[in-house]
Specification:
The protein has 392 residues and is mainly alpha-helical. It contains 15 helices and 8 strands. It has one domain: Glycosyltransferase (Alpha/alpha barrel), CATH 1.50.10.
């Protein structure tokens, strides 16, 4: 059975390659979903936010990618996968993660807010058998940058929602604009409901109602979404009971990941649990989804980076796929998410090698495909994390 994440990384990626007339072989991977870098504290406004420590490499990446990402915004507020003359492909999951990186430059907050306005305006407000209330479809926007058509589908309902909740929290902390979240409270709670709509008795979520597979990647993202929804509910909404409810869901998902997916015997997580209960454990030599999924618990905060398990998983990944910092993985996409994970692990050598590689391969060449929004934003997250990390 083709995996949902494989569909996101492979089916979607290959479709986009065909759409943009590009070959999808060699060099880099399709991204998964990343998480936010350490957010700016709530007390700091856009103008007060402390800039990352000066570093020629990191500053260059942050400045260039902020300019590129913001330039992609369409008139209607949507941000597509990549530039062009239209039609534009808008995949909210990828944009959500990309803008987590853009908020490393808080002066770009108006771009993020305009996109969030678009997202709220496109929520599915009528539920169906396979369409949860508060979910959102992928969209195509025509060359006029306003005429839109919903695809009628989404790659997932759990991760689209969770990553938007990540974005809401980071926006609030980067800008201090909690009023925006308060204004949209009912919609935010709808989105949280969509995230949890496929949660099962074992604590894990199906990717979407019509695709009943429980993915390690999705569920770690749901965990992160619940961390942020607990914060939004308690800190912004002042709703202690609501925060407690999301905390309970968070603990359920965490327990599901640890009890249902982790194997002491294999020293690895199952990257998928099928509807019938069958577990898929990784072949470490298979880059995606087997090996890459093992890093998701690290950047989503399920595992502390200094924990023994995180260290073992990260070491195993690098042992089996040592060439990723040089974009040597036999995969069509850069996989900036690997660099962000490496940054969280404090691995400056590999992060810097990756940043130099993508700067030469993509940034200096005007961002050719398969560079796209999520790669850009997650590269910003990695650069910002390194800029803010104490020098060794």
């Amino acid at each position: 059975m083709m995996l949902n994440k494989g569909k996101r990384r492979i089916t979607l990626a290959l479709g986009l390659c065909l759409l943009f007339g590009q070959a999808c072989s060699g060099g880099a991977p399709v991204p998964e979903k990343p998480v936010t870098a350490s957010p700016v504290s709530l007390e700091k406004s856009v103008n007060q936010a402390k800039p990352p420590a000066a570093n020629p490499l990191y500053e260059d990446i942050l400045n260039r990618e902020a300019a590129w990402l913001s330039s992609l915004q369409l008139e209607n507020g949507a941000i597509p996968m990549s530039p062009g003359g239209g039609p534009y492909r808008v995949v909210p999951y990828f944009t959500n993660i990309a803008l987590l990186g853009l908020l490393e430059k808080p002066e770009q907050a108006p771009v993020v807010r305009k996109y969030m306005d678009w997202y709220f305006a496109h929520l599915n407000r009528t539920a169906g058998p396979d369409v949860p209330l508060g979910s959102i479809f992928d969209y195509t926007v025509e060359a006029d940058q306003r005429t839109e058509k919903a695809s009628g589908d989404f790659d997932s309902t759990d991760s689209y929602a969770s990553t938007f909740l990540n974005l809401l929290r980071k926006y609030a902390e980067a800008t201090g604009d909690t009023e925006y979240l308060l204004t949209h409270r009912s919609d935010i709670e709808l989105i949280a409901g969509a995230m949890l709509s496929t949660k099962q008795a074992d604590g894990l979520t199906w990717a979407k109602p019509a695709y009943r597979v429980k993915y390690l990647m999705d569920n770690t993202e749901v965990y992160k979404g619940l961390v942020d929804m607990e914060w939004i509910s308690g800190t912004v909404f002042g709703d202690k009971a609501g925060a407690a409810a999301y905390r309970k869901h968070k603990k359920d998902v965490f327990a599901g990941i640890e009890k249902m997916l982790w194997s002491d015997d294999k020293n690895a997580y199952a990257f998928a649990k099928m509807e019938g209960g069958e577990l898929s454990y990784p072949n470490w030599d298979t880059f995606y989804a087997d090996a890459t999924a093992q890093l998701f618990p690290i950047w989503t905060g399920v595992l502390a980076p200094d924990s023994k398990r995180a260290q073992q998983l990260y070491a195993a990944f690098n042992e089996h796929h040592p060439g990723w910092p040089q974009l040597n993985k036999g995969d069509a996409f850069p996989w900036a998410l690997l660099a962000y994970t490496a940054a969280i692990m404090g691995d400056r050598t590999r992060v810097d090698a990756f940043l130099e590689s993508v700067r030469t391969t993509y940034l200096d060449r005007d961002h050719p495909w398969p560079w796209y929004v999520m790669e850009s934003g997650v590269t910003m997250l990695a650069a910002a994390h390194m800029a803010n990390m104490k020098k060794e």
